[in-house]
Structure formats: structure tokens, C-alpha cells
Specification:
Radius of gyration: 21 Å
Number of strands: 13
Distance between the termini: 62 Å
CATH architecture of the largest domain: 2-Layer Sandwich
Bound molecules: 6-O-phosphono-alpha-D-fructofuranose
Shape: globular
Strand order of the largest sheet: 2-1-3-4-5-6-7-8
CATH superfamily of the largest domain: Fructose-1,6-Bisphosphatase, subunit A, domain 1
CATH topology of the largest domain: Fructose-1,6-Bisphosphatase, Chain A, domain 1
Strand content: 15-25%
């Protein structure tokens, strides 16, 4: 149902409408800080296309300031916005190898933030939608002291919130605290994110599959069989599935969240553990899609149940409509059974 009126993110949390256990002033303030960072990044992303037109040279802009790569700009914007708020004890970013401590002059909070500041940034040069992804935990180490790597390496099930910002034809912020998924669209006229999508639910079955078919020759047999099945099967309208692949995780998953379908970034012969990062890509997206009634798996196990071993580890990702993720798992299990059957037959011959 399309909401009416001007429901901002701040009001949405404070009025407790998101029914989340974190409905406290601190959590609202934390999300407000994230929304502010998103607005700043959105402004810069939308300007990026003008670099040549405005005569911004490779390194200096018209103010003589150093023009940063957009993903570094997004990274630094998020750090600056979060440090002042005093909500976090530690952070981690796709852009930094190690955990990021809160500067001494700032207050240390009880939350942990992991983020991909600008996912898909290589697409910005061709004006394709890109996104920011964030994942929030409560600290597990004692309050009042700097956060630790242990605070960051928690299972996805322990997330207290997750979300993304999609810099597309409009800028949207989508987040969940585990119960429902809400979407806010930025009104550039007065710089506020307004509630535009209430309690998003992903269709139980889609007719879109989304993966990079250029990697076909590296795929495992079960995945090859699954994709061929989708191209032959007829959906309720008598149509085979449609292939849609933007190559920007946030954009691909957002489309499937709205329309239904499955996004896949598998493990393959070139990438034995896949490409997408567990802590700040797979886990937050899995929390959102599950809260919207979908599923997220590594092909065999629930993404959110994976015990992290390192900050930047990657995992295979099969995510989207419940029916579609369950079906691809069947194809992959069948492949495992066929391999076992063949090996047993060989050992008996
Ligand atoms: P490929 C973008 O570089 C990204 O990290 C995700 O946003 C996207 O889903 C994926 O990589 C695309 O990877 O190998 O298909 O180009």
C-alpha cells in the first residue's frame, strides 16, 4: 500500500512504526546520521557525470580541491558522519583491510557498523545505478572501550538492522530491523527521505533470473541444469523466465525485491567461494530479503547462519523469492547426489 503524507525516516522510527526492538532515540539518531551520509553521497554521485562537462580535471575540481574517487568519497563521508554521532564502538568498510576504530576524541557507542560505501562504483562511468550497503550489530565486547574484530565477526542472524541506498533514477533508502522492510525515496526538493514503500514483500515466486551468464563455462553442473530449466520452463503466463543482469548488486536485488525472482553469484572454477563479501554484502541483503519473505542461501545453507572467519570473506549467494531459491538448491543437491552415486558405482566396479 502506498503510504500518504510526509513520513520521514526520523518520524518513522520515533513513532515506533517499524515495530523494531531498537525504537530508541539512539537508534533513530543513528539511522538519521546514515540518511544524512546517503544524501551527501547522492549529491556527489549525481554530479559525477558532469566531471567532463564542468571541466573538472582528473585531480582538481573548480575549487582547487582534490577530486576523490567516488567510492573513497563515499567511504570518508560515512566515516565522518558516523564518528560524530557516538553510536558506534567500531566500524568496517570494504575500502579498508582492518577494522576502523573510533577516534579518541569521539564518544564510543554500543553499535557496530559494517558497510560497502559504493558498491558497483565501476558502473558510475556509464550512468548505471550503484549503491551503499550497511549492516548494524550490537557490540559483544564490554561497553566503554574500543570495539574489536570479534564485535564485527558476528553471524548475520545477530544483525539489529540492515539496509541499502540505491542511487538510481531516484535515490532510495531501504532498511529493516528484522520484522518489516521499508523504503524511503529522497525528495530532492527539500532533501528528505520520505516513506514510499511500506512493508515490502517479495513475491513468493518470480520469473526473473539474474546472474552473469558470461561465466557459464565455469559453473557447476547443477547450476547449468537449473538455468537451462528456467529457459525451458513456462511460468503461469506461459512464458519462460526473463534474464536481467545489471551488474550492480543493489540494483539487481532491489528489482527482484520489487518484482520477484532470483539473483545468483555462485562459487565457480575461478572463484571457489564466490565474489560477494559476507559481512557487508551477503548478510545485509539476506536480512532484508528474508524480512520481505524471501530466502538467501550459499546454495546449501542459510547465509545468515554462516559463522564469519574473516572480515572480507566472500560467499556464494543465491537470494530472492522463496520458491526460486528452494528450487535452485534442489538442483544443486541433486548434483551432489549424482556425484556421490557415480563415485560409489566407480568404487564398486
Ligand atoms: P561481475 C560490482 O562490481 C559487484 O561487486 C556487484 O555490485 C555486482 O553484483 C558484481 O560485482 C558483478 O560482478 O563479475 O558479474 O561483473
Amino acid at each position: 500500500m502506498k503510504p500518504t503524507g510526509y513520513m520521514t525516516i526520523q518520524r518513522h522510527i520515533l513513532e515506533g512504526e517499524s515495530q523494531h526492538p531498537e525504537a530508541t532515540g539512539e537508534f533513530s539518531s543513528l539511522l538519521t546520521d546514515l540518511a544524512l551520509a546517503a544524501k551527501i553521497i547522492s549529491l556527489e554521485v549525481n554530479k559525477a557525470g558532469l566531471v567532463d562537462i564542468l571541466g573538472l580535471t582528473g585531480n582538481k575540481n573548480v575549487h582547487g580541491e582534490k577530486v576523490k574517487k567516488l567510492d573513497m568519497f563515499a567511504h570518508e563521508t560515512l566515516l565522518k558522519s558516523m564518528e560524530y554521532g557516538g553510536h558506534f564502538c567500531v566500524m568496517a568498510s570494504e575500502e579498508e583491510q582492518d577494522i576502523i576504530h573510533i577516534p579518541e576524541q569521539h564518544q564510543i557507542g554500543k553499535y557496530v557498523l559494517l558497510f560497502d560505501p559504493l558498491d558497483g562504483s565501476s558502473n558510475i562511468d556509464v550512468n548505471v545505478s550503484i549503491g551503499t550497503i550497511f549492516s548494524i550489530y550490537k557490540r559483544v565486547s564490554p561497553d566503554g572501550q574500543p570495539g574489536t574484530l570479534e564485535d564485527c565477526l558476528q553471524k548475520g542472524t545477530e544483525q539489529v538492522a540492515a539496509g541499502y541506498v540505491l542511487y538510481g533514477s531516484s535515490t532510495m533508502m531501504v532498511y529493516t530491523t528484522g520484522e518489516d522492510v521499508y523504503g524511503f525515496t529522497l525528495d530532492p526538493a527539500f532533501g528528505e527521505f520520505l516513506l514510499s514503500h511500506e512493508k515490502i514483500q517479495i513475491p513468493k515466486k518470480g520469473n526473473i533470473y539474474s546472474l552473469n551468464e558470461g561465466n557459464y563455462k565455469y559453473w557447476r553442473p547443477g547450476l547449468k541444469r537449473y538455468i537451462k530449466y528456467l529457459q525451458d520452463v513456462e511460468d503461469l503466463n506461459g512464458q519462460p523466465y526473463s534474464a536481467r543482469y545489471i551488474g550492480s548488486l543493489v540494483a539487481d536485488i532491489h528489482r527482484n525485491l520489487m518484482y520477484g525472482g532470483i539473483f545468483i553469484y555462485p562459487a565457480d572454477k575461478r572463484r571457489p567461494t564466490g565474489k560477494l563479501r559476507l559481512m557487508y554484502e551477503c548478510n545485509p541483503m539476506a536480512m532484508i530479503v528474508e524480512a520481505a519473505g524471501g530466502r538467501a542461501s550459499d546454495g546449501m545453507n542459510r547465509i545468515l547462519e554462516i559463522q564469519p572467519e574473516s572480515l572480507h570473506q566472500s560467499e556464494p549467494l543465491y537470494i530472492g523469492s522463496e520458491h526460486d531459491v528452494t528450487l535452485v538448491e534442489k538442483f544443486l543437491r541433486e548434483e551432489e547426489e549424482l556425484i556421490r552415486f557415480t563415485e560409489e558405482a566407480k568404487s564398486q566396479s
